[in-house]
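Okay, can you check this protein?
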Amino acid sequence: MSPNFQIAWRFLVAKKRALFMSLAGIVFGVAFFIVTQAQTAGFQNFFVQTILGVNGALRVQDQYQYTLTDMVAELEESEEVDRIRLREGREYRPGVHNPNQVAEAVRAFEEVTGVAAVLRGSSSISSGFRSDEGRVLGINLLEYLAVSDLGMYLRHGDLADFSADPAGILLGNRLAARLQVSVGDTVYLGHLGEQRRYRIAAIYETGVEQYDRFHYFIHQAEARLLLKRPDEVSYLQVAVRNPNNAPVLAQRIEEAVGHHVASWQERERSWLDVFRVLTISSAITMSAIILIAGLGIFNTLAIIVMERSREIAILRSMGYSRGDIRAIFIYQGMVVMVLGTVVGFILALCLTWGVERLPIRIRGIFATDSFLVEWSIWHYVWAAVIAAVVVFIASWIPARKAARMEPANIIRGTGA
């Protein structure tokens, strides 16, 4: 242990109460920063998983052609000419009219892991008790299970029953509650004055209220008969290896197949913006606690400089350089930072473990019965970085003042 560090430690422990208050600020600031970031990231990641499980990473939908073929734009800083395709200049034809060919073209992309055709349309749904309006989704079950988490969302019934029954139907739990029906009951779907009879094979719950309230699944062959659309499908739902790369892949597929392709980031932009704001807001709030602790460290070191001015003069007279004096006071801040960060990490681990087990019932944008957290090393890294920056700045100013003291002036009583 270097002499500078030993002197720093003795100066610091002489102010035990101030040391404890500064240390407590760093501990709680670091711990709460990590816990809030873990909670926000946990809810955001679960929301993303739910969206991917329900709607897939990509959706290939309306076919398009250009009415304004292109627009020539001259670059401001170059003589080159760039041809820009404009979505505003497109003419859209709803649906996918050659689903097999388009699906094969999409599957040719290496990043794609699954493609499922979905036929969607509006219909009435009624039971012996009441009727309602909703959206029927015609699917091929095996294809759809490859691009969604439908099997994980079942609450009652069995997908095997749905697969074996051409007249089977899957209902969301909220819609089933409104119709007052359960597995095995009969419902009637109506479209353009025609009604068809179906048996409830299973009831699912995604936690997305609008989805569970208005959507129901039937076999695609049945959907074609009900909706009277024998050839086309409404969209292709696509699963990919890395959902984070969905926007780039969407653009490539769109250019290849001539259909509009929407990534999950594009479809859920508003909710992602909400989570981003919450993440930044909680980080700023918790960083304020660390900043207040930094002010406490600054105040403690400033007092030590004033009270230890004669000791500083003696050290300078013994040959200690300005750099040595500066290091002594920076060491004091770093000791508080390291101890506070380590204890804060331990407290954060305990708090995160406890928060994860707190019961909470959430339904609306996803379904969960407990707090969601993400265990990420980056939350700890960022907490340590923020603490280190704040403490270093808080330590540097008193350290600089101490280093500039002249021994002769202090001894004569004029340098304090």
